[in-house]
């Protein structure tokens, strides 16, 4: 146990009261959407596997001053709030969901930002309808890297690791908030796919991701699912014409994006800007890498929205 978090508040006390939570019917299913609101340019944020809309809490709070941030719960990810588990689960289906949501909400050329599987969905949205996306930000799309940092290989080598982890996920659903926080803190960092030496996250990041884990519909593991990989769609990269930022972590800390994938994207998307976040692994917009990640995203969006030279490093 690296830290304790006995005083972290529940998610209901962390989400700003002026943000809107609504159930939207799009692509034939109910999609729960958290939205910061206001007469501002739309920014659609798509979370990764086993995450949810509240996983974005800290980043959305930082961007809400300039953008109307729209954060949907992807199908099957929040039990009781997002539907669709019986009608399929694939990158193409989640892309259909996201494009339908943009249409239903009448979002005019949103900036689209995605993490992990959500980054692949954001990429496919832009490939399919390049004129409908103002700019694309991809944080760590799975693309050929190792599934987790090498320092955590012992977890995979343990025969009972998966069963123990699934048991914890089941127990998490019935725990009161304070017990959940203590339980996840005691397992830190094994409760999140982050580097071994990552210190305990701050309240927004920790509680947002813990809430996502506690409400994830784990019955999805009873069906065969193919995990996302950008490698399957690299031949479509040239369709992307909007400004694009790719954020990756360091391979030794668990990045899922290999150098050859970056080079292929840069060759096929001349406007692509790439930034490797120092000390980052697979999750960059939360925890220790947040400040560098936010500064890079903010500078990129500043150049996109206000047509000034981009300040992000490449």
Provide the descriptors you would attach to this structure in a database record.
alpha/beta; eight-stranded mixed β-sheet; 8 strands; 14% strand; globular; disordered C terminus
Account of the 3D structure:
The chain is α/β, with parallel strands linked by helices and 314 residues long. It has a single domain, classed as Alpha/Beta hydrolase fold, catalytic domain (Rossmann fold, 3-Layer(aba) Sandwich), CATH 3.40.50. It is 34% helix and 14% strand. It is built from 10 helices and 8 strands. The protein has an 8-stranded mixed beta sheet with strand order 1-2-4-3-5-6-7-8, with helices on both faces. Helix 2 links the parallel strand 3 and strand 4. Helix 3 crosses helix 4. The longest helix has 17 residues. The C terminus is likely disordered.
> Reading side by side through the largest sheet, how are the strands ordered?
1-2-4-3-5-6-7-8
Which stretches of 5+ consecutive residues score pLDDT under 50? 308-314
Q: How many structural domains does the protein architecture include?
A: 1
On the 0 to 100 scale, the average pLDDT is 88
CATH class: Alpha Beta
Radius of gyration using CA atoms only: 18 Å
Q: Which shape, going by the Cα principal axes?
A: globular
- The helix-strand sequence is HEEEHEHEHEHHHHEHEH
What is the total tally of β strands? 8
List the total number of helices. 10
Task: Measure the end-to-end span.
Answer: 37 Å
């Amino acid at each position: 146990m690296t830290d304790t978090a006995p005083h972290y508040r529940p998610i209901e006390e962390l989400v700003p009261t002026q943000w809107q939570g609504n159930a939207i019917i799009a692509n034939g299913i109910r999609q729960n959407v958290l939205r910061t609101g206001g007469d501002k340019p739309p920014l659609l944020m798509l979370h990764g596997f086993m995450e949810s809309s509240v996983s974005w809490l800290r980043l959305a709070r930082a961007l809400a001053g300039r953008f109307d941030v729209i954060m949907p719960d992807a199908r099957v990810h929040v039990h009781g709030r997002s539907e669709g588990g019986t009608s399929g689960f694939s990158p193409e289906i989640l892309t259909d969901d996201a494009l339908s949501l943009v249409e239903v909400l009448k979002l005019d050329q949103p900036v689209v930002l995605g993490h992990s599987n959500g980054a692949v969905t954001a990429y496919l949205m832009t490939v399919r309808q390049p004129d409908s996306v103002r700019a694309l930000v991809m944080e760590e799309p799975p693309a050929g890297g190792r599934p987790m940092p090498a320092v955590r290989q012992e977890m995979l080598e343990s025969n009972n690791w998966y069963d123990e982890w699934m048991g914890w996920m089941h127990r998490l659903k019935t725990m009161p908030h304070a017990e959940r926080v203590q339980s996840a803190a005691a397992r830190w960092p094994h409760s999140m796919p982050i580097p071994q030496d990552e210190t305990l996250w701050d309240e927004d990041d920790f509680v947002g991701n813990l809430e996502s884990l506690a409400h994830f519909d784990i019955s999805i593991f009873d069906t065969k699912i193919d995990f996302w990989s950008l490698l399957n769609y690299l031949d479509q990269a040239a369709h992307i014409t909007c400004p694009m930022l790719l954020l990756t972590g360091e391979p030794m800390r668990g990045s899922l994006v290999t150098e050859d994938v970056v080079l292929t994207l840069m060759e096929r998307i001349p406007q692509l800007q790439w930034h490797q976040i120092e000390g980052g692994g697979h999750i960059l917009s939360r925890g220790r890498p947040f400040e560098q990640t936010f500064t890079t995203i903010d500078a990129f969006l500043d150049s996109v929205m206000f047509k000034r030279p981009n300040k992000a490093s490449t």
